[in-house]
Please model this.
Amino acid sequence: MAKLDRTDLLILKSLQKNSKFNITELCEEVNMSKTPVYERIKRLEEDGFIKQYVALVDHKKVGLPLVIFCNVSLNVHNAEHIERFTNEILKLDEVTECYSLGGVFDFLLKFVLEDLDAYNKFVFEKLTRIQDIVKMQSSIVLQEIKHTTQLNLKLPEKS
Model:
């Protein structure tokens, strides 16, 4: 993995705040001209530090106010069953995040839906039809306290 210097980290921090950055402001912040900043951004993209650029959409404003986290356990824990489960989850547009866990449950899912009727339909028409699920436990989000995609990148001291 490539080593990131202070300038790379400053660029990443700025892009995390707003990927529709103003190049002039970014150049001032890192004290470089446009060409080297563009080259660094291109390298950060090519090296996989920047995976993609996205718009964070307000789920409530687009009619999807219900956020649910669901813990899932499988009854079989071999590669074939886990791969089958993950492939099925990848097909579900309602699932916005999925994590493999260590501990009591095997997976944590996050889905965003219209309402409780949509949740009920999603669970019984899609989720429970996935083979090998033995246990599910859902939690409904009452209030979103913090939601960010920004990583807490530590900058090295200036030299």
The two ends are 23 Å apart (CA to CA). Helices lie at 6-17, 23-30, 34-46, 79-90, 116-125.
